[in-house]
Design brief:
212 residues; alpha/beta; Rossmann fold; six-stranded mixed sheet; 11 helices
């Protein structure tokens, strides 16, 4: 196979062109396309074209939440690290992960639950709009649903893309069934990198200089 000679600045552009070609004549909602293509760009997995679920008006509601300066909460440091903080800061959005906080670790040990679960409890106490980007822990999604059902949490968006086998599929369906604005990778696939890239796709859609 011949190696292509491509300028560094053109690599991403060519990658997205390849994705568009390989998607062929598949009909994709124009609002969802930049997100789906970035997920495929991150994973090289075209199955997301069939499994990435968007609730009604999820993209527009998510963009408005970002414009409103939503606090973006992740369940892993990897997802937190992968989100473009400079792009988020343009809209007054803070990006946080509470998983390593001492109070979270202590509470999780005391209660015999995961730190991801306790992290969601801590996030529920935040002031202002919140976006959740969950790429690893089904227990985080389950807790988000419990908090919503109890009237203690009303997220502006839930990105539910944990990867794995135990409670992964069911926890994602709980979020879809909740009625909350959401973007969910149905099935077993996902990951912290997918959670981060979905947030970045939304940020870039609002960035006039970058654009999508």
């Amino acid at each position: 196979m011949e190696i292509q000679k491509i300028a560094p600045m053109d690599i991403e552009k060519e990658s997205f062109a390849t994705i568009t070609r390989e998607l062929g004549d598949r009909v994709i909602d124009p609002e969802q396309a930049p997100i789906l293509k970035r997920v495929i760009h991150t994973t090289a997995d075209f199955e997301y074209a069939d499994t990435l679920y968007f609730s009604e008006n999820a993209v527009e509601l998510a963009k408005q939440a970002i414009r409103d300066g939503a606090h973006i909460i992740t369940d892993t440091q990897m997802a937190c690290s992968g989100i473009n903080k400079k792009a988020a800061a343009k809209f007054g959005c803070e990006v946080s992960c509470f998983i390593a906080d001492e109070d979270v670790a202590a509470e999780a040990k005391k209660r015999g639950v995961t730190r991801a679960l306790v992290s969601m409890d801590k996030a529920a106490r935040l002031e202002g709009p919140v976006i959740f980007a969950i790429g690893n822990a089904p227990t985080a999604l389950i807790r988000i649903r419990e908090l919503m059902d109890a009237g203690e949490l009303k997220p502006r968006l839930v990105i539910g893309v944990p990867v794995g086998f135990v409670n992964v599929v069911a926890s994602k369906e709980l979020i879809i069934e909740s009625g909350a604005p959401c973007i969910v990778a149905r099935g077993r696939k996902g990951g912290s990198n997918v959670a981060a890239c979905i947030v970045n796709a939304l940020l870039y859609m609002l960035d006039e200089k970058r654009g999508q």
